[in-house]
């Protein structure tokens, strides 16, 4: 089934759009789009043109098989990308970093869940990049602490670091507001 | 994520007939390279697309692997 779908994508008959779950992260369901057939429309258009101007003696261009393959390049895919696709990158980067040190799925899920739980209410306030940076910094802090000493509960340590970082962000924002009010 | 609105946003055809036409064209164009299963799969997808708003149904049914 997957192989069949891959082949159809390769022939540009369908386009696959992958999505990520915005709340919990991880892969969501794929969206399959049946591509409109370009060849037929183009060839029809050519026929019509030929009928209108029968005296046109220009040499005919070789009939290139136009298909979505030509359009199905990177830019096209980028334009089709799901809104909030930064989540994908953020999630992947997070996963990559964790798997560098501890390649355990459940450990990663626990970390990511605790991170998501903490930033969930802040997503509307801060930029995604800022929150992502907080998560990455907290991860690095946790791993460096684990190297230095025996951390009993790494996930707890991580969530505490995230909490501190988020508090720091809040204080920074307060300071900025104060400065703007009393310059 | 709201999958239905996402599907509506990316829908390439306005009517069912347009889609059937495109499916037919694809099969004519690539028919030589496709196996019976693959052609069957295109038909299956198109049926699903029609019953879609069907996307959701597709998700619920899960295509047989």
The general outline of chain B is elongated
Mean pLDDT of chain A: 74
Helix count of chain B equals 4
Shape of chain A: flat
The overall strand count of chain A is 2
Largest sheet composition of chain A: 2 strands, antiparallel
Q: Which two chains touch over the largest interface?
A: A-B, 29 and 31 residues
Beta-sheet strand percentage of chain B? Answer: under 5%
Unreliable residue runs of chain A: 45-72, 78-86
Strand order of the largest sheet of chain A: 1-2
Q: What portion of residues of chain B is helical? A: 55-70%
Average pLDDT number of chain B:
73
Secondary-structure element order of chain B, N to C: HHHH
Write down how many β-strands of chain B occur, each being a DSSP E stretch of 2 or more residues. 0
What does this structure look like?
- The complex is a heterodimer of chains A (about 180) and B (about 60).
- Chain A is mostly helical and about 180 residues long.
- Chain A has two domains: about 1-80, no CATH class; about 85-180.
- Chain A has helices at about 1-10, 40-50, 70, 75-80, 85-100, 105-120, 130-150, 155-180, and strands at about 15, 30-35.
- In chain A, helix 5 (about 85-100) runs parallel beside helix 7, helix 6 (about 105-120) runs parallel beside helix 8 and helix 7 packs across helix 8 (about 155-180).
- The termini of chain A are far apart.
- In chain A, about 15% of the residues are buried.
- Chain B has helices at about 5-10, 15-30, 35-50, 55-60.
- Helix content of chain B is about 70%, strand content about 0%.
- Chain B is built from four helices and no strands.
- In chain B, helix 2 (about 15-30) packs antiparallel against helix 3 (about 35-50).
- The chains are: A mainly alpha (about 180), B mainly alpha (about 60).
- The interface of A and B includes residues 7, 11, 28 and 82 of A.
């Amino acid at each position: 089934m997957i192989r069949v779908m891959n082949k159809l994508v390769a022939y540009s008959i369908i386009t696959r759009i992958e999505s990520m779950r915005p709340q919990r992260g991880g892969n969501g369901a794929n969206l399959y789009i049946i591509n409109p057939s370009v060849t037929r429309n183009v060839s029809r258009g050519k026929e019509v043109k030929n009928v209108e101007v029968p005296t046109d003696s220009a040499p005919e261009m070789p009939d290139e098989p136009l298909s979505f393959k030509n359009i199905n390049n990177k830019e096209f895919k980028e334009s089709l990308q799901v809104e909030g696709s930064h989540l994908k990158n953020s999630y992947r980067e997070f996963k990559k970093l964790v798997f560098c040190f501890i390649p355990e799925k459940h450990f990663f899920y626990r970390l990511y869940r605790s991170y998501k739980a903490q930033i969930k209410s802040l997503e509307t306030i801060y930029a995604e990049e800022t929150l992502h940076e907080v998560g990455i910094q907290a991860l690095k802090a946790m791993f460096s602490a684990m190297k230095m000493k025996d951390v009993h509960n790494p996930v707890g340590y991580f969530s505490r670091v995230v909490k501190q970082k988020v508090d720091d962000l809040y204080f920074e924002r307060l300071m900025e507001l104060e400065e703007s009010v009393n310059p | 994520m709201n999958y239905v609105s996402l599907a509506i946003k990316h829908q390439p055809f306005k009517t069912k007939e347009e889609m059937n036409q495109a499916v037919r064209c694809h099969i004519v164009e690539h028919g030589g390279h496709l196996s019976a299963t693959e052609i069957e799969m295109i038909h299956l997808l198109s049926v699903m697309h029609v019953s879609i708003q069907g996307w959701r149904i597709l998700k619920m049914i899960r295509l047989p692997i």
